[in-house]
Structure to design on (884 residues):
């Protein structure tokens, strides 16, 4: 044996080399740590509601979807880890991904989407979607669908969404003799009403009735058609006219609104507060939900539109993506399709969650939603809601968006709270932000 | 010279082990950090520092060490030709790049190891200069590569941000020390290789010198030998001359002295006693005859007497006819040449060969038929003597044949004989112009 080895030294060396290289390659390719078989599908999901409202129905829609998947593919086992809170979900998901033990299919929180794409953790679904029957993408709200788009590729499909709506204290408006604004009301209408209701009702020298609370620059930008970043995220457009219009409007609003907090709306002394549709769903006392605002009637309106924009608002969207390292792509895709595009499953969003279905047909026709809206006495209708979702603005998607957003927040906050010239400080800030975007936020990362 | 080679091999071994140690260190630290990050739930902050997901923590050591062992096996391949060496080098570079990439360019010294191993065959490789430069450039710009690939890779420093500042310093310090050590050993290895190559050249040069010396000595010895041989020829000549002088003195001198003395006596006696003078003259004649016989005898020791009387051709014919008469053998003689222009020595040799061969055929071969053919071919005189005798299975070079051969060799001729079927003698004598002394 020993002589054979010394005679065939090169052969032995070559063999050893190949064997160890193969060991390395096989180790590299094996993305699951051993104990999982190929027909087990894992799903990443959090236990509480995406809308921060406990309803105890967390896994109902998922379970129904799994049951539906099993009807067609009885061999597939689907497992998911229960008990992960939404606030821990990102950490849990990223930890799993770092360990290469990520679930095959997982829910994506809006803040994590850009990072996940950047990390190549999401499977590119563009080609699979192209293979689906015609009308597949059209059945979704285009805004919701575009939340999962990154550089023209679809990495995730929307599961449920909610546009921002303007909550209005109907009791207060009635008291002041102001009619409910129409569905396409403007910034001017908004300002006039705010100006009108802001007063000291009990004559104690402090203002105790307010026009609005929580209306921020994003709401103004969205309804004035501001596109803050170029599509690739390489430039910021803080200096454009629509931004200036919006900021001037915000400054004007701010001047009539002093010392007001969210609590004041709950107390019934504020006329308007922008809130997510999910809040509307949660607190509308139909059929059995709790009633949050007991001392006044309230309803929902679309956001007021700016001089260059429409009555649109931002859209929050919970999405589902597939792990790029999955070995069960097809079953994962099947389950994802059921969760996102099966009308029966999507219908349950109105029963067990607080969002809006991402399917146009479901949102426009659903009876539960219809009854809900009807009972609220607000000018909102299913058509208007559907329209507002369809036209809603989604957050930009590029790799350093979250860091750029922080800078923009800081910039706007500084500008509005200072007395400096608006345009010149915008130019300054724009330069700073563009510089950071160009440098890829290297310094901030380090 | 051998010591340098041995030392360089040792340095290479140390280099390989050191690289193994460094890779083990780097992968273990990375694994430990990843495991810690997961354990302490700091995944989000880690994720924000990276732009690509790392491998699972348990994979790092397995993959890197497997790749490294695979590379070591490749490096142990030996006795490859140039083409195979280049292919091997390509694979080594690929594996090295994989390792360096997977550990996030944290450690690039392994490039030096590949260079160190390749240097063994590079001296025979005609693109060695560009290759070496390329290697060094890769090593030098590897830092730059990290920057350019910044968005893709996770460096060692990002991993160890998991630790506190002081621990981080120690960990980077260890890696830097190991890297520097690697560089140092690489340099020592290169110096050793260069030294051993230099020594090898020196050794070859010294061998060459020795060879040249030996050549010169040989030349000298040759010249000396030539001189010796000339001396010997001279000495032989002198000895022969002395012998001749003695011979002349002993025979002719003695006889002539006798004759002169006798003739002096005769001149005194001739008038007084003519009869006694006659007697005296008769005795003088006897002495002269005796002297003549003595001279003949001594000359015949040097030369066949027939040749004195006849030219070579006639002498041969006469000798053959005498032999025919004396023996009962049937001897055929055919001479197709003039047999002129031969020196005395050559004539002697030719005559003796024929005489000796006939004598041998009759005495030893018991032949009764002898054919002798003499002719010229290509500036050679060919003598063919063939008999029908019993021949000789095993040719013993008796005095005759040996003598023949010796004498022919002196004339640069050749002798061939064969005793298988009768006896055949074939002699070749080169023909040239006769010397002046004929």
């Amino acid at each position: 044996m020993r002589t054979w080895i010394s005679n065939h030294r090169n052969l032995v060396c070559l063999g050893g080399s190949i064997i160890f290289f193969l060991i390395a390659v096989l180790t590299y390719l094996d993305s699951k740590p051993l104990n999982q078989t190929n027909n087990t599908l894992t799903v990443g999901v959090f236990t509480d509601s995406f809308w921060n409202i406990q309803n105890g129905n967390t896994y109902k829609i998922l379970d129904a979807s799994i049951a539906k998947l099993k009807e067609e593919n009885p061999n597939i086992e689907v497992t998911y880890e229960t008990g992960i809170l939404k606030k821990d979900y990102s950490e849990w998901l990223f930890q799993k991904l770092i360990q290469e033990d990520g679930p095959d299919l997982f829910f994506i929180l809006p803040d994590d989407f850009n990072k996940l794409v950047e990390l190549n953790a999401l499977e590119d679904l563009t080609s699979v979607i192209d293979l689906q029957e015609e009308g597949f993408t059209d059945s979704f709200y285009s805004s919701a669908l575009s939340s999962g788009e990154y550089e023209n590729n679809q990495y995730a499909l929307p599961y449920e969404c909610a546009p921002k709506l303007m909550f209005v204290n109907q009791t207060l408006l009635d008291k002041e003799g102001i009619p409910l604004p129409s569905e396409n009301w403007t910034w001017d209408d908004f300002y006039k009403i705010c100006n009108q209701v802001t007063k000291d009702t009990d004559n104690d020298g402090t203002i105790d009735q307010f026009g609005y609370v929580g209306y921020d620059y994003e709401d103004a930008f969205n309804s004035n058609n501001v596109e803050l970043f170029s599509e690739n995220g390489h430039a910021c457009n803080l200096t454009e006219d629509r931004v200036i219009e919006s900021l001037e409007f915000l400054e004007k609003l701010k001047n009539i609104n002093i010392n007001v907090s969210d609590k004041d709306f709950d107390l019934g002394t504020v006329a308007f507060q922008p809130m997510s549709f999910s809040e509307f769903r949660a607190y509308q006392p139909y059929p059995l939900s709790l009633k949050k605002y007991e001392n006044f009637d309230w309803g929902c309106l679309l956001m007021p539109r700016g001089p260059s924009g429409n009555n649109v608002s931002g859209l929050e969207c919970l999405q589902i993506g597939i792990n790029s390292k999955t070995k069960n792509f097809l079953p994962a895709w099947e389950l994802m399709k059921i969760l996102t595009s099966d009308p029966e499953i999507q219908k349950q969003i109105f029963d067990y969650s607080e969002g809006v279905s991402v399917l146009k047909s479901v949102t426009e026709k659903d009876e539960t939603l219809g009854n809900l809206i009807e009972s609220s006495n607000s000018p909102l209708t299913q058509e208007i809601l559907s329209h507002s979702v369809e036209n809603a603005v989604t957050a930009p998607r590029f790799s350093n968006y979250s860091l750029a957003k922080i800078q923009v927040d800081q910039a706007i906050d500084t500008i509005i709270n200072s007395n400096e010239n608006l345009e010149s400080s915008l130019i300054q800030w724009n330069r700073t932000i563009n510089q950071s975007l160009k440098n890829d936020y290297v310094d901030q990362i380090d | 010279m051998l010591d340098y080679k041995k030392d360089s091999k040792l340095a290479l071994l140390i280099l390989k082990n050191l690289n193994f140690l460094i890779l083990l260190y780097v992968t273990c630290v990375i694994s430990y950090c990843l495991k810690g990050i997961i354990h302490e739930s700091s995944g989000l902050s880690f994720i924000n520092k990276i732009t690509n997901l790392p491998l699972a923590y348990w994979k790092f050591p397995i993959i890197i060490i497997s790749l490294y062992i695979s590379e070591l096996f490749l490096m142990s391949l030996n006795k490859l030709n140039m083409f195979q060496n280049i292919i091997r080098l390509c694979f080594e570079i690929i594996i090295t790049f994989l390792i360096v990439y997977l550990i996030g360019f944290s450690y690039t010294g392994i490039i030096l190891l590949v260079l160190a191993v390749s240097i063994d065959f590079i001296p025979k490789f005609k693109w060695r200069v560009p290759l070496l430069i390329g290697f060094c450039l890769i090593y030098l710009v590897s830092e730059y590569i990290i920057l350019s690939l910044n968005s893709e890779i996770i460096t060692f420093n990002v991993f160890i941000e998991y630790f506190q500042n002081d621990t981080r310093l120690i960990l980077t310090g260890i890696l830097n020390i190991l890297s520097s050590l690697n560089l140092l050993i690489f340099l020592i290895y290169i110096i050793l290789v260069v030294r051993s190559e230099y020594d090898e050249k020196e050794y070859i040069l010294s061998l060459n010198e020795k060879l040249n010396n030996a050549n010169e000595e040989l030349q000298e010895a040759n010249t000396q030998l030539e001189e010796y041989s000339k001396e010997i020829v001279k000495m032989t000549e002198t000895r022969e001359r002395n012998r001749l002088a003695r011979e002349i003195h002993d025979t002719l001198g003695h006889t002539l002295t006798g004759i002169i003395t006798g003739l002096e006596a005769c001149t005194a006696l001739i008038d007084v006693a003519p009869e006694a003078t006659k007697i005296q003259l008769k005795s003088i004649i006897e002495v002269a005859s005796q002297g003549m016989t003595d001279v003949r005898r001594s000359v015949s020791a040097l030369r066949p007497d027939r040749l004195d009387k006849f030219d070579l051709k006639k002498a041969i014919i006469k000798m053959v006819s005498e032999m025919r008469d004396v023996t009962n053998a049937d001897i055929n003689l055919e001479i197709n040449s003039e047999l002129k222009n031969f020196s005395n020595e050559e004539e002697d040799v030719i005559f003796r060969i024929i005489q000796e061969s006939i004598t041998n055929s009759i005495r030893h071969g018991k032949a009764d038929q002898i054919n002798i053919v003499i002719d010229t071919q290509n500036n050679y005189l060919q003598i063919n003597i063939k008999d029908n005798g019993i021949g000789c299975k095993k040719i013993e070079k008796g005095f005759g044949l040996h003598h023949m051969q010796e004498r022919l060799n002196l004339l640069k001729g050749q002798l061939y004989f064969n005793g298988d079927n009768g006896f055949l003698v074939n002699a070749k004598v080169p023909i040239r112009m006769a010397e002046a002394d004929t």
